[in-house]
Design brief:
The protein is mainly α. The chain has one domain. The protein contains eleven helices and three strands; from the N terminus they run H-H-E-E-H-H-H-H-H-H-H-H-H-E. The protein has a three-stranded antiparallel sheet, with helices on one face. The radius of gyration is 20 Å and the shape is globular.
Length: 284
């Protein structure tokens, strides 16, 4: 009997494209919702940045609300969503391909959330840079925020290395098998970096914010370094064999039967991300 081909890589590429789409454009959607909730308008929505109408006086708002509406809300919501997804992955039974998607989506939201914490804390850039620019009347608060974000971002990024590595062993039957560990680490984690990093740079390059000079490609490169935890998750799982579980956590192999619906849907949403959300949607 002819052995069926292992097309688990195709499935993981499909789920990765979906996870990226439901991470980055959704991050910007959080910004847009916050602007609307505070009574501000939105001039442009894009996968690179949301351009608010700035109809309200941010400096008149209390500190907490100023942080939220000026850019801090989206990364905070990303972290909250990441924790919710993590709990669901731990507690809810699900099919293999759905678990792959949920792990990649959880990683994407955590990367975006703690990644922006780190960039905002250490470099004073990104969403949190806009927050600081609207808090010049409170330099002490800016200092506290930057220290706090630097700590949360640094600890969060490193913790994510281990969390994603932990998730790998749902799909690893023999933790002593290097080939199996490399395969799972590549398909589950590294593929997110391989797709997400160049896609993020490309979307940044065609975004209205970049074309207007508001956002530089150097900053775009810095922001997209947030995908790095997926590289270290691959290294921890496939190369370094970092903290493998003492007892088997294996549930099932990565699904080998191709799910073309997931893959095609993934391609479609990435094309939407590039050709619709990339150049931006302008509102009157």
């Amino acid at each position: 009997m002819e052995q069926k081909k292992d097309l688990s890589l195709l499935n993981c590429i499909g789920t990765a494209m979906l996870a990226i789409f439901f991470t980055i454009p959704v991050h910007e959607f959080f910004h847009m919702l916050t602007d609307i909730a505070y009574g501000d308008g939105v001039l442009c929505f894009s996968a690179g940045a949301v351009q608010p109408a700035e109809l309200i006086d941010y400096t008149s708002l209390p500190i907490f609300h100023r942080i939220m509406v000026c850019g801090g809300s989206a990364s905070i919501i990303n972290v909250i969503v990441g924790f919710i997804l993590m709990i669901i992955i731990f507690k809810v039974k699900m099919r293999p391909l759905l678990r792959v998607f949920m792990i990649q989506l959880m990683g994407g939201h955590f990367c975006t959330g703690v990644g922006y914490f780190l960039v905002g804390g250490i470099f004073g850039a990104g969403d949190w840079g806009r927050v600081y620019s609207n808090m010049i009347d409170s330099p002490g608060t800016i200092t506290v925020l930057r220290i706090t974000l630097s700590i949360l971002g640094s600890v969060g990024i490193v913790a994510l290395f281990f969390l994603l590595n932990y998730m790998s062993y749902y799909f690893i039957e023999d933790k002593t098998n290097l080939k199996e560990r490399v395969s799972v680490g590549f398909k589950l984690h590294l593929i997110m970096l391989i797709i997400g990093f160049p896609l993020g740079l490309g979307v940044t390059a065609i975004s209205p914010a970049c074309k207007s000079g508001e956002l530089s490609m150097l900053l775009g490169l810095l922001y997209n370094m947030m995908w790095i935890p997926f590289f270290w998750a691959f290294m921890f799982t496939g190369v370094m064999k970092t903290l493998p579980p003492k007892e088997s956590r294996f549930l099932y192999k990565l699904p080998e039967k191709p799910n073309y619906i997931v893959f095609v849907t993934g391609v479609i949403v990435i094309l939407i991300d590039i050709f619709v959300f990339g150049p931006g949607i302008w509102f009157d």
